[in-house]
Amino acid sequence: MPHLGVDEFAIRRGQTCATILIDMATHRPVDVLADRAAATFASWLRNHPEVRIICRDRAGSFHDGAQAGAPQARRVADAWHLLNNLAQAVERVIGRHRADLRQPLTTHDDRTSDGPTPEGHDRSELDIHGRPRPLAARTREHHQQIHERIERGDSLRTIARDLQLSRATVNRFAHAAGVDELLIAATNRSSQIDDYRLYLHHRWMEGCINASALTREIQRLGYRGDVNTVRRHLKPYRNGAIPANAPLPHLTVRRVTDWVMLQPERLTDVERKGLDELCERNPALATTVEYARRPALMVRERRSEHLALDVWIADVRLDGQRELRTLANGMRRDRAAIQTALTTTYTSGAAEGNVTRIKLLKRQMYGRANFDLLRRRILLTP
Asked: Quick one: 155 and 217 in the same domain?
């Protein structure tokens, strides 16, 4: 068994984890370890000196165990986990700068209209009927009440009790830089229909104005909502407030992260222009996009020019956002395994597939068996 895959799985979610070892040639499990400790993994490897390649995710215990128990083996970091770690870091960066997502994109702003907005309300605080959103109004009211009480000298515990709010909510309102920061969550909530706004716009302009028919169409595309949501979305169209431009997707942290991580040639013109405008608006996001796409290209194409990974790590540690610097520091410690992943085709796909199989076995056992029986079933079930 020269080619070994290793991954962890939960025996009891959030409490106890075990380790599964896979023969990557046959895609079959060869052993199950009772925990995920580095010492346990290293002890198993010492008894199997024939192992020459170890495919793993970037968990620290597997790194330390492989280094201690099989120094002769080449360690390979899984490509999917590399991209996932990168996407998580990018998402955290964008989350810190989510205030820039609140401002509508100027190139294709479909929320402009000739009618006046209610006094004291930003247009993003209005619903599709032009009425103030109740959540935005409550946010403003609570922010004012909490800060008035703080100025009077009341404690956060007293404020929470009198206003019947949780202490966590009062603490968040008290330490927010301003009400605008709090309104982001109230005015930028995603909806089930966000992914289909562009399709509905084009179909309406083509002459299909039947909400039930449009609902059936987008349900075939994956929409899980009901016809009433579609009717509410189309009501401005029926009242004559048809956007001059096709509506942009709702800007959320997850959506912008997808734009950054997606291959540039696969972005639509609208997505590309939207991302470019966000980068012009915020230099930190522009730098993040550049630093995210370089390793993503290396992983996808399985290539790494001379010192390309080292140059990327050095650049990020010099002027990257702190989330990317944390990622770069971890990749620096795991450089050998990552470099092998960029120059070979080895993956941990078989190990991940066996983890999914283990979940099925656990459900069949209703959680009533001990580890010994679970181990036997994992190893012996076809």
From this structure: no
pLDDT for 316 equals 94
- Counting as low any pLDDT under 50, the low residues of the chain are 108-119, 128
Q: What is the pLDDT of residue 110?
A: 42
Whether 107 is in a domain gets the answer no
CA atoms within 13 A on the CB side of 200: 32
Domain count for the chain: 4
Cα maximum dimension of the chain = 77
Terminal CA-CA length for the chain: 19
Name the E strands within the chain: 3-12, 16-23, 28-33, 53-56, 74-77
- Supply 343's token pair: 């120059």
pLDDT at 125: 56
| d(C-alpha 186, C-alpha 124), whole Å | 10
Place of tokens 């984890």: 17
Contacts of 56 (CB under 8 A, 6+ apart): 5, 6, 7, 62, 63, 66, 75, 76, 77, 78, 337, 348
How much is the pLDDT for 131? 59
pTM above 0.85, yes or no: no
Distance CA 137, CA 125 (A): 8
Owning domain of residue 292: 81-99+253-306+316-334
**Residue 324 and residue 285 in one domain:** yes
- The pLDDT, as a whole number, for residue 232 is 85
Q: How many CB atoms lie within 10 A of CB 177?
A: 8
What pLDDT shows up at residue 97? 87
Identify how many contiguous H helices and E strands the chain contains and give both numbers. Answer: 19, 5
